[in-house]
Amino acid sequence: MKRKLKSPESPLDKHTVEELQFQERLIIKYMKEGMTREEAAMQALADLREKMDRR
After folding, report:
1. How do residues 1-20 score in pLDDT, each as one tens digit?
2. What's the superkingdom here (predicted)?
């Protein structure tokens, strides 16, 4: 039996990639502003949640 593979073009996958790219850009931005990696990651996650709540 062959397994059915998920299409790499599924909207959920694309949406997830976009969220991760957004979060990565925020982490880099905050680290440039002097935050530690952990602080930047927490702030980026909070910003991502806020952005998702506005949708």
Report:
1. 555 555 555 666 887 888 88
2. Bacteria
